[in-house]
Specification:
There is one protein chain. The chain has 109 residues and is an alpha/beta fold. Helices cover 37% and strands 26% of the residues. It has helices at residues 34-39, 41-48, 60-68, 81-88, 97-105, and strands spanning 2-7, 17-25, 28-33, 55-57, 77-80. Strand 2 (17-25) and strand 3 (28-33) form a beta hairpin.
Amino acid sequence: MALHIGTDKTNIRTDNIVVLAISTDVNTCWCVDGEVFEQHIELFKSIFENANIKKIGHHIKNDYITLMRYGILLEGVEFDSYIALYLLEPQRKTYELNDLALEYTSIQN
């Protein structure tokens, strides 16, 4: 499952979750409002802490830290495109997901 957490500011240690995006395949994506996430936190906890459900993301360390604040320990992390891009191109100045999508898939905002 692909995972991305959108927050309301820029400090992962204090930000509130605004949106949670989850994709299980190339044709399916769910965007969950931050309030809905908080109302159903036990459901999400059971998914995120299940190491058998493999997770991928971009700069997933930030998601890991954010989820820890909610008492969720993210397990089953398999791939981080941020780290992969750094390993491929350590000289880059930025490793933003939008740049990565544009360069490797021709997808634009």
